[in-house]
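Write out structure tokens for SsrA-binding protein.
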Amino acid sequence: MAKKKSQNSSSTICLNKKAKHEYSIEEKFEAGVALTGWEVKSLREGRGQLVDSYVVLKNDEAWLVGAHFTPLISACTHVVADPRRDRKLLLHRRQIDKLSAAVQAKGYTCVALALYWKQGRVKCEIALVKGKKLHDKRAAEKEKDWDREKQRGLAAH
């Protein structure tokens, strides 16, 4: 019997930490990502970034805009690698309808939170979010600090 490759302890490729700070997350979705060969190889090396990336809904399709996948140096020379191209997200029709209704009617924004591996495929965690006000960001920061202090107190005892 052939042995399976051992999985990494963390299947996360990259996170969008800025999104969790800037927005309050309402609902999360899991989407597949349509990638080319060099992009998959680049992600296996951990060369993906989701900073300033978001999801656009047009023509009843979802597109990941602003994600940056750095091409490998050893990539094929006849392939033109565009690291910031728009990538199609693979979602069910009901999910796309739900996202577009929330974005148009309720004033939500759709943002990419993470890229990760799931059964050998790249998945993107996207979320419906609302922007935080400055005082909301401060309150969240205070709450995070208070939780940290509580954990330190419990660890000391």
